[in-house]
Amino acid sequence: MTVGLFVPCYVDQFYPQVAIASLQLLEKQGLTVRFPKKQTCCGQPMANSGFEHLTGGCNKNFLEAFEGFDYIVCPSGSCALHVKHHLKVEGQEALASDIRNRVYELTEFLTDVLQVKNLKARFPYRVGMHQSCHGQRGLKLSQMSELVAAPFSKPESLLRMVQDIEMVQLDRVDECCGFGGSFCVSEEAVSARMGQDRVADHQRNGAQVITGADMSCLMHLEGILRRQGSAVQVKHIAEILNGE
Amino acid sequence: MAVVNGKDHAALADVFNKDKARVGWHDETLWFVRQKRDKAAHGIAEWEQLRQTASDIKDHVLSRLSQYLVEFETRAKENGIIVHWAADAEEHNSIVLGLLQKAGVNRMVKSKSMLTEECHLNEFLAKKGIEVIDTDLGERIVQLAEEAPSHIVLPCIHKKKEEIGALFHKHLGTPAGNADPQFLTEAARQHLREKFLTRRVALTGVNFAIAETGEFVVCTNEGNADMGAHLADVHIACMGIEKIIPKREHLGVFLRLLARSATGQPVTTYNSHFKKPRKGAELHVVLVDNGRSRQLARKDFRNSLKCIRCAACFNTCPVYRRSGGHSYHTAIAGPIGSILAPNLDMRQYADLPFASTLCGSCSNVCPVKIDIHDQLYKWRQVLGKEGYVPKSKELGMKGLAMAVNNATMFSVGGKLGRWVMRNTPFVVNNGMNPWFKQREMPEAPKESFREWYAKNRKEG
Question: Which site in B2, B193, B276, B456 is 20 to 30 Å from B216, CA atoms measured?
Fold first, then answer.
């Protein structure tokens, strides 16, 4: 089984350790993992700003980069969701559709495809789980508090395999952090306030580390924590699942 | 660009956020309503099935709207109701004015109707010298404050009880400094009672109109629609054409969903059926289009017309809770308002589909399963293509599209950017950067992942 590692553009540039952890975590499962160099960005920043029609270049890159892999795995629910919903290239509809169906978010891939039952990882900290909306409500990585339905959580079931980890219970289990792509600057006041309120929930409930399946949310929360001079850290879930 | 006094949603939200304690209070107050909704929904095992049923009924109605409207009109006329058709807000307002003039009155009472807010009926009638008294307590409060409702179910939710006390002191003569909710409510009741007893025309909204029977249903918690309608000689009921349901038996589905979604109550206190005029009285229904058939023709946005105005999407929306209803500068705020308003005026409301993180909570609480967040995304595409997105944003996105068009350019650009952030941080860490205002920038590593990969994995 050959897996193409789909790394969000900002993770590539600002959080290489998250991509390294994702790569190593997948390699530990005995998979052949490749990072196709041709990839850049999924196109979501443009599309969410109303310019999906400017994402042709991104889509073409994506198609060329990821053609031929058994699975395409991404350590971001948001980027994975965008590709699954919006990847299209004129004249190559069948290939685009095939590729869309091969894209998985990392924790979803570990849970549903590899059906991982245990992990060799240890993380002796109190951890708050941030549910990123696109992963949760878009890819259904975990149950949503609005629905009357049985609870489940793919990322949390993986975290529970980690030795010595202590999960904290939040007051609002799945409220948006306010990052929202270009929303974080175009609606700066509301975005920052939402982030401050999320951070406060984790702090109030004793989290030492905030984790999640999307580094964009965590980048926003980290920016707020560092401005406050808080000791609370953010870590992408891949870093915890890969930690020893 | 969409504006109110030169300010769009982001600018109005920025003003709202100056008072941090108040934002916290507003957020908590509405989150409390969301929690009440959750509790009520979880009390019904078949909740999700109920939502699906309501959605299916509404989809069916929208697919045969003209047929059901004509059926409703026929039955209503048989019942003795006088039916009017209004193509737009202007026609709606002039029909209401005509009825008031015919009755020879220059004042009336009105219970909650977001449609009349949408049509700006109060302002129109005021200019014609007609006094309108809103009889819903929350609406009366914002009317006294000369403000618009900030929420479609809880019109004065942005006001604290002390502010309401001060307002009542000024307008109703209650003692200064008294902010006791029960006392103030009693003062409002006494004030409104006199209006109910003396006004000869009452206007109400409509929650559901039943095609099969030609009757309509008005839901209130205060009974103010009934007080108005039962005491007046002329009852005018105004409704958007999407309020139709086929049969009376469908009503139970919606009544079970409406109050639970809106406030967490099992049912609204008064669900009043109006079928025929009282002896000697007149009963009018005004059916209003005002852009609804245009929305019906937009395939991507059609099902926004399923909305039953419960405001669950307001209460759950993390942006609404932290920006307040007035920042949406439209009669219907919140996520649903943000997908309805651009249909009315794309230029004026081009900012609203962007007043969201697309978190999707709105779609999940919606009792009729409107895909609100997907429609927000789709409106953005329409607005982007039609040139209603600010030029600065368009330029930025064009630049970004170019930067990520090619992996080499992306890699070189990224390396350069990170070098700048590490060596001359003042270039990004300044007042020109909205991110930096309340957040630190991420630290820029020396090596990107792709650089690390090229060194550490051979087969790159």
Answer: B193
Q: Block means of pLDDT (10 residues each) for chain B, length 460 residues?
A: 74 98 98 98 97 98 98 98 98 98 97 96 98 97 97 97 98 97 97 96 98 98 96 98 98 98 97 97 98 98 98 98 98 98 97 98 98 98 95 91 91 93 92 94 96 86
Distance between CA atoms of B317 and A212, rounded to whole angstroms?
21
CATH class of A126-241: alpha beta
State the smallest CA–CA distance between residue A46 and chain B in angstroms: 6
Residues composing chain B: 460
CA distance B317 to A176: 9
Q: Which residues, numbered 175 to 194 in chain A, qualify as contacts with chain B under a Cβ-Cβ cut-off of 8 Å?
A: 175-176, 178-194
> What is the value of ipTM here, to two decimals?
0.97
Window A:71-90, CB contacts with B under 8 Å: none
CATH top class, domain B49-139+200-310: alpha beta
Q: CA-to-CA distance for A117 and B312, rounded, in angstroms?
A: 39
Q: Which residues of A touch B355 (CB under 8 A)?
A: 187, 190
Query: What are the phi and psi torsion angles at B446 (to 5°)?
Result: -70, -35
Is B14 in Cβ contact with A189 (below 8 Å)? Answer: yes
Domains of chain B, by residue range, sit at 49-139+200-310, 406-456
Question: B323–A185: do the CB atoms touch at under 8 Å?
Answer: no
SS3 B34: helix
**What residue spans define the domains of chain A?**
2-113, 126-241
Quick check: pTM over 0.95?
A: yes
A187, B8 contact by CB (below 8 A): no
